[in-house]
Specification:
Immunoglobulin-like, five-stranded antiparallel beta sheet, 38% strand, flat
Length: 591
Amino acid sequence: MKRIKYIFIFLILLATSMVSAQVKFQAKVSKTKLGVNERLRVDFEMNQDGDNFNPPDFSGFTVVGGPNQSVSNSWINGTRTYSKTYSYFLAPKKQGTFILNQATIAIDGETYKTVPITIEVTSAIDKPADPNDPNYIASENIHLVAEISNTNPYLNEAVTVVYKFYFSSSVNVTNLNDVDVPKYNDFWSQDIPVKELKLEKGTFKGEDYNYVVYRKAVLYPQKTGKLDLEPLTLDITVQVPTNRRDIFGSRLMTRANKRVSAGSRSITVKPLPEAGKPVDFTGAVGEFDFNVTTTKTSLDASESLQAKIAVKGKGNLKLFTLPKLILPSSLEVYEPEHTENVKTLLRGMEGSVSDSYTLVPQFKGKYPIPSISFSYFDLKTETYKRLNSDEIVIDVLEGPVNSQMASSPSHDASTTKHSVVLNSEPFAFIKTKTDFTPIDTTSFFKTRTFWSLLLLPFLAIPLAIVIRKKKAIRDADAFGNKIRKADKLARKYLSHAKKAMGQKEAFYIAMEKALHNYLKAKLQIETSDLSKDKIKTLLIERQVDAEVIVDFKNLLERCELARYTPIDIVTMQEDYDKAAKTISIIDKQAR
């Protein structure tokens, strides 16, 4: 039994060591489809060093560069990370479909092979690109895409547009700037704020990419037919790899500036069907509930009550009118108060809208509020639906009797309108006599408290004179006061970022919140208005220099992107100092 136990422990240790030392050897290509006049890059990567590397024969291609060898060896938290890469640049010989066969290498006496890759070569493209050109590399590795939830909606049906920015792991994006922002003509539109650029994994044209959701909007088409969406255009600053290497063998990066566009998109809007359209239909599209309620059903004359018409659900809540309340002419009615409690989410509007009427009966009797209806187009069934409210009877228990109704039984309380009878004593409820009693003040005078309160102002006069002189001297230093105020404001908003120095993610989250909170306080705007265009417009109106506005905008974008790229504490300190300086300058310049 003891021997079996030792064998079992040995097998566990052996399996653990094999798992921890798992070898990876794989082939990666820059693209799987290219023109016959383009170039293809192939990388063979391994996580352990090996011997006798044998590339495939590259049948159908000519080797125009390589093999280039790069090695990366690092220690992070006591864990060693090793990577070795052989790179080749290939030119297709002709059109067709080719297979890059297996490459082999020997590692620790074992032979490892890559998986074959299929490459499609098409006809020549219009403009042959140099695979080493930074602009070409950037254009091949960054893409802006507009994803539309529904390209064939009904009139007033919600459509979601999500702009995703894709970039490959081989490049580093350092800056994003809006150039052209869609205006969404012929649509009711609502931008959905993107609080932060969250890095996610996805695929673009069958290849693995990183991406961030850059902008989101909900649209409600207001016209039928083909409607065009203007493209979103961005200026991008990106670092791309070159063929040059440093003394440690790491690939050097170079900067490229690119302008990318999501491209023009169109939506074909269907009209709502005419068949079965109700006469009272006012344009509601979605899924709704409808009701009419009153705050009370029995009261005395001259008292008031509220009658509310409410529509609740999902749909174009802000884009239709509510039905009118039908009331007896004997009730005094005030103009309704319209209330909207609507949230615009990525899937569309949700919430409720209502009209609240104030009613005041003047005579004793029963007053019926008849049933009213609300019609809407249901997107699930693609049919019109009608909802009806219940009849409500208002019972006025006490009050003057309508003389015309009493003398003429043929008159109805719901149809006869009479003048208002005023109360002869409308202010009878106001009290004219009080129950106040005098306060005994003889015990307070000539006490220590009395003399202390009497002499204290005279003793405080010299101290107040000294404080006033110092304050006058400080107030006279207008320039110094402005600098002190600006610096104090910067330190106040950046205090949390200062405490998180050295913790990359916490630091940039705190700095981004500080920049947003400063703008909210300085420009008196809400969080929902903190768009880049709005910020730029308000700062220009406050006569802030254009260069300072650009610095502030770049800081915000830096906070969004820096959380996903390696940053050292020196860079954090530089960003902190720049943020403090920028806030201070804006506070001094803004009028």
